[in-house]
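Hi V.,

You were right to ask for the full record rather than a summary. Here it is.
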Amino acid sequence: MKKPQKTFKVKRSTSGMGLGLFAAEPIAKGDFIMEYIGELITNAEADKRNTKYLFELDKKHVIDGAARENVARYINHFCKPNVEAEIVRGQIKFFALRNIKAGEELGYDYGEEYFDEFIAPKGCKCPACRLKQK
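Predicted structure:
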């Protein structure tokens, strides 16, 4: 596992989404942030697990990122993300979509399937959606 190239703080999200991941220093657009790590399992095994930290790697494999050492699990869903996930040679890596200021929360789009199953029933609480509600 590669260590993150930047430093981060895990703290309670100001948007009410639970814990979130915040940049402790500025991050430039395009910078590698960190890798999503965990146990590599099959899709069939993923269907049996009761966790929301499953990240599909390909049609046959999933990474179960529930372990606390997977700091990337604290990146919350944003409808207007500042981070994107890319699968690079069998690894899930996060990169900055734009310049991110120190103290800013990191967020990426979890995708339609996750959103519909876990977020939509309770209502999205990401910063963009909270602004719409005001």
